[in-house]
Amino acid sequence: MKISRKSKILVTGGAGFIGSHLVRLFVNKYPEYKIYNLDKLTYAGNLENLKDIEDKPNYEFVRGDIVDGDFILRLFQKEQFDGVIHLAAESHVDSSITNPMEFIMTNIVGTVNLLNAAKYIWQDNYQGKKFYHVSTDEVYGSLGDTGLFTEKTAYDPHSPYSASKASSDHLVRAYHDTFGLPIIISNCSNNYGPNQFPEKLIPLFINNIQNNKPLPVYGKGENVRDWLYVIDHAKAIDLIYHKGTIGEIFNIGGNNEWKNIDLIKVLCKVTDKMLGRDLGTSEKLITYVKDRAGHDLRYAIDSSKLQNELGWEPSLQFEEGIEKTVKWYLDNQEWLENVTSGDYQAYYEKQYGN
Ligand code: NAD
Ligand code: DAU
Would the pTM of this model clear 0.85, i.e. be above it? Predict the structure, then answer.
């Protein structure tokens, strides 16, 4: 009699912001799967994010670097994964401007190592196998005042980060077209929510507001981003992983565009209110600084394919999401202090000092 085993899913970058929410969702929702979280634990990876599920029997953490091809191949040979959900990446645009090479290595070479290992262990027998690549809307470049990115929009990346993600998307597609590897890709807009490293706009500004530090707005603050609550992204990945057709691309977005300066004013208001400060106190911290090099003006996502084909839609309104988010950071001082000690100070000085 054949003994069936749990389906084994490898999540890469599961100690990071989005990855940790995804790992939690899968570990709790699918006891029939064994979830492996492979993470190098860079400055952005934090196992504190997963404290509540670390002892679950269907969860295992593996520390490792996706750039190390031999290690990746050995891991795949040993564990014989059935599925891969690939999130590990260098993810901060500003850092890609100061240090592009890390982005080339992790985002491009790391992705190819995973593709090669999956191809090798699956040996052209792709029945029941899946390689899901998590990507970004930034690969499409920048929009003017109107229009939306669709799955057919031509790639036009501008930062080393978005160019490295675009390269990885092309390679994932190429492994499908050339070798038949069963891939799916999704391209999502800006995420916000608990556990995001405070180099990104929303957690950085909440932290600075609390500490009465300047709020460094790049350029005129006129750039537009589409914001999605991180748990809604995790739910979209779950749906696409299970129901999406192999070889397809899905855009994921919040249908929730904000000019940076307007979003920042909302953040100031919500945070002032929660801190019991007079309204208008934190807006005084707004400081216009030199613009980001190659700063994309506007991102906006058409996610109608995902809505029409798989019935997904965001569950949270932005007002509710932003209140939950501010509250989380204010309630989790220890988490913030842990991640902003050490190297963070040097990063901050280099990025924002004078
Ligand atoms: P993050 O920076 O918070 O986390 C990245 C994780 O990857 C960290 O845990 C880090 O330790 C790990 N990692 C980095 N290099 C590694 C390596 N060489 N080997 C193994 N692990 C490594 O990133 P995030 O914001 O959670 O983004 C996750 C993914 O989603 C990325 O692929 C990103 O491009 C994509 N994405 C992010 C957003 C967003 O708004 N944050 C939006 C769309 C897509
Ligand atoms: O669109 C999806 C992408 O969103 C993801 O692929 C990236 O991983 C993620 O980092 C994010 O990229 P952005 O560059 O849009 O996010 P960030 O939070 O860095 O910046 C959001 C906007 O705020 C952007 O227009 C730049 C601006 N900004 C950012 C920082 C950190 C400021 O004005 N000041 C700042 O200090």
Answer: yes
Give the mean model confidence (pLDDT) for residues 148-167: 98
Q: Name the residue at shortest CA distance from atom 6 of ligand 2.
A: 136
The enclosing domain of 111 has a CATH number of 3.40.50.720
**The pLDDT of residue 3 is above 90:** no
Tell me if residue 83 falls in helix, strand or coil: strand
Asked whether the beta carbons of 136 and 147 are under 8 A apart, the reply is no
The predicted pLDDT at position 6 comes to 87
161 is catalytic: yes
How many folded domains does the chain comprise? 1
Cα-to-centroid distance, 183 and ligand 2 (Å): 27
295-to-84, 93, 158, 164, 214 alpha-carbon distances in Å: 32, 9, 8, 16, 21
CA 43 to chain centre: 15
Task: With respect to residue 207, please indicate whether it lies within any of the assigned structural domains.
Answer: no
- Cα(326) to ligand 2 centroid in Å equals 17
- Specify if 262 maps to a domain: no
Q: How many CB atoms lie within 10 A of CB 15?
A: 26
The whole-angstrom separation of Cα 222 and Cα 322 is 20
Say what the pLDDT of residue 5 is.
79
Decide if 145 is inside a domain. yes
Q: By residue range, what is the domain housing residue 65?
A: 8-196+226-256+293-317
- For residue 329, tell me if it sits in a domain: no
Position 1 pLDDT exceeds 70: no
Does residue 2 have a pLDDT over 80? Answer: no
- In this predicted structure, which of 207-216, 266-275, 321-330, 340-349 has the lowest mean pLDDT? 340-349
